[in-house]
Structure to design on (268 residues):
């Protein structure tokens, strides 16, 4: 049932909106509510503050400085010789070039897929048993494998991390994180049976009501953004598809939640 849904999804009719200017707002882990930018005609999302929080909405931040990516490929995968960083003929970016055989090695972003599993007005979260972010809560998600679709990968990751057999309902969000070379695709899903348990990479799994989601103990900026958008959608009575770019602070690790910016937020 997913293919017809994707063909008819309103995102396909709003692709032109990607070129319009968007508002950037700084998100800080300790500053709630968390606003996400959205251009007219839609009003901006105002993320609900946690209980007892008196923090005000943060002011817009200046554009980040351009980041020059440096390849981490130090040795040629083909012959094992050291590589050097240089701009190949006809290219415009620094690449890892083998000092012996001359092969140019490219690095491409990785796709992360996962499920936002809904059951009895709650969402399924897993507490990580591995680094990074050991002991923190996350949605079941992981890297897409060669030979599988994004929906298949999201279902597989949910089965591996939460031992939960799920049915994909619809795509919910695409979140690009250029600094760390990742793109997330998160699907809404439902449990086929009300059974789940921790997989090898999880300490525990649990269903959380929206007001009980442990936002102070979530593993990644992508998970915070996804769950904030979902919470606001549910409370507004209209669940949408979301796209945005997460700009992490230069030098921040994937699990560093101290600050990050949201760009180009589109909800359709």
């Amino acid at each position: 049932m997913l293919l017809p849904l994707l063909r008819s999804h309103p995102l396909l009719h709003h692709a032109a909106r990607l070129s319009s200017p968007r508002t950037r707002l700084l998100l800080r882990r300790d500053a709630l509510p968390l606003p996400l930018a959205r251009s007219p005609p839609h009003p901006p999302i105002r993320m609900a503050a946690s209980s007892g929080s008196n923090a005000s909405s943060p002011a817009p931040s200046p554009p980040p400085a351009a980041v020059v990516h440096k390849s981490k490929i130090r040795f040629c995968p083909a012959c094992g010789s050291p590589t050097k960083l240089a701009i190949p003929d006809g290219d415009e970016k620094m690449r890892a070039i083998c000092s012996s055989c001359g092969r140019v090695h490219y690095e491409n972003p990785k796709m992360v897929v996962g499920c936002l599993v809904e059951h009895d007005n709650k969402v399924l979260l897993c507490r990580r048993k591995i680094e990074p972010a050991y002991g923190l809560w996350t949605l079941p998600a992981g890297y897409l494998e060669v030979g599988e679709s994004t929906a298949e990968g999201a279902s597989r990751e949910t089965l591996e991390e939460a031992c939960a057999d799920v049915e994909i309902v619809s795509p919910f969000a695409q979140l690009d994180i250029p600094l760390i070379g990742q793109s997330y695709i998160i699907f809404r899903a439902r449990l086929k049976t009300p059974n789940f348990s921790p997989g090898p990479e999880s300490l525990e799994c649990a269903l959380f009501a929206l007001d009980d989601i442990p936002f102070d103990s979530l593993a990644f900026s992508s998970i915070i953004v996804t769950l904030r958008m979902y919470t606001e959608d549910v409370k507004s009575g209209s669940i949408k598809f979301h796209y945005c770019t997460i700009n992490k602070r230069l030098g921040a690790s994937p699990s560093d939640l101290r600050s990050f910016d949201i760009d180009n937020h589109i909800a359709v």
